[in-house]
Amino acid sequence: FIPRGDVIFCSNCYGDKHSTRCTKCGESIEGGGLTFKDEPWHADCFICCNCGSSLGGVKFTMKDDQPYCYNCYGSMHAKTCTLCNEVITGSGGTRFVSFEDRNWHNDCFHCSTCKATLVGKGFIFDADEILCPDCAKAKIM
Q: I need a surface site. Which of 63, 74, 93, 118 has the fewest CB within 10 A?
């Protein structure tokens, strides 16, 4: 039995009247829940809006107030690197370069010929290649 003020409840009645309820399903959270945006959730109820996988205890991201696991967000909304075709998530402070309609991870943004980094430097497009000025001059001559 559980006392509350002047009233004593059995555990079932106490849970029905006073326990924290999950934002999604409305059922009592008896332990193992989580809080997101100041709202309580069962770990199994806080899920990716696309694939339905549980987001409790894992990294996730929001888009348009909807939670996404990293895989779904990456495949549906993230930019893709022009060189390696991998998703650019921006997680962990990952930096990237954008030019016109193309995007690269910083580590992938290098001269196609000499492989020197082009981050923060001048570059020239030649068809599908990006070249440093020195390699572009050598190619023209």
A: 93
What does residue 119 show for φ and ψ, rounded to 5 degrees? -65, 125
Distance of alpha carbon 82 from alpha carbon 98, whole angstroms: 10
What number of residues does the chain have?
141
Token pair of 52, please? 């339905």
Helix (H, G, I), strand (E, B) or coil at 2: strand
Quickly list H helices, the chain: 11-18, 70-76, 133-140
Does residue 46 contact residue 36 with C-beta atoms inside 8 Å? yes
| Tokens describing residue 37 | 């945006």
Q: What are phi and psi of 121, to 5 degrees?
A: -125, 170
67/39 Cα distance (integer angstroms): 14
Residue for token digits 């402070």?
A: 93
Express each pLDDT in 43-61 by its tens digit. 899 999 999 999 988 888 8
Cβ-in-10-Å burial (0-12, 13-18, 19+) of 119 comes to middle
Q: Is 0.85 topped by the overall pTM? A: no
Rg (CA), the chain: 26
